[in-house]
UniProtKB/TrEMBL annotation:
The keyword ATP-binding does not apply. It comes from Emiliania huxleyi (Coccolithophore). GO terms for molecular function: medium-chain fatty acid-CoA ligase activity. Signal peptide: none annotated. Pfam families: AMP-binding, AMP-binding_C. This is Uncharacterized protein. Belongs to the ATP-dependent AMP-binding enzyme family. Keywords: Ligase.
Amino acid sequence: MYHIPHLAAGACNVVPASAAFDPSEALGPAPPPPGAGGAREGRASPLPQVLHELLPRWAGACTFLAPTMLHRLCEADAASRASGEALEHLRTVVVGGGPLHVDLLRRAMGRFGEDRIVQVYGMGECPMTIAHLGRQWHRGADEALLRSVGWPFSHEVEVMVAGEQGERLPHGSIGEVCVRGSPVMSGYLGDEEATRRTFFPGGWLRTGDSGRLDPTRGCLTLEDRIKDMIIRGGSNIYPREVEEVLLTHEAVSEVAVVGVPHLEWGEEVAAALVPPPGTRREAREALEAELDELCLASLARFKRPRAYHWLDELPKNSTGKVLKRELRELLAEKAAGEEPAAAAA
């Protein structure tokens, strides 16, 4: 199985418990390297509080975080000196399970150091990971590399970007990310039709993610979930591209961009925004004008959001992933003149 590049021989790693990972799974099903050790403790408390309690008790710790969890940790660190001191004991932060925007990654690197972040990309059908950007690649990395998920995790995994019929696309072209190799599942138990839909000929597993391979370096950059892509008047818009721009504004703490129904264009771009704590409601209208100018300066005009919706929080699942289907429904209702009480600011 895979080696784990952030687990060094002789290291002592603490893996905070989660509903999704057991320490043996998080560190690989094979025995760890000689001299490696680990420990596990569980707490039913918010993540920043858990780490604040546990980290001072250990010489070093490794934790796996979804991007939302990383965001909360950075926010708590900024608000609490005690929390910041506790985080000094955190040796490695493995991030995966959703899009990691460059703005958040830079904040985390500034706080934890460039050599303590490991990005991973994978899915249940190809455990544990498809690609990774190891700690060594974060040092002095340019924007394009930080936005990527790195390279295939091992020689056992092959990655390609495919067209609609499963044909291999040249590097630099955007298509569906596909993977094959010994870690890839053979199929869904008892569901041959689902298995057929999920594989291209040649044993290529379709991830459902759109992405591209860098023409020079060969690293993989994800664009978005294919189902989340917005088609406005026949033009493809990848929400992550818009989100990356909006997150550069200091008044935006979190953002998710989705397509909402539009009579003329088919879909229109809408942005759901979470402001930093303490932002006054009256200031939001002026902020929207600034955000619009920011998008016009960085994006093609048709990609900019035509509507901004300020929410107290984004709808998420238990692991912190934004539920874009629920968000689309919420914003479609708001666009139609309905104001649901849930999640509205």
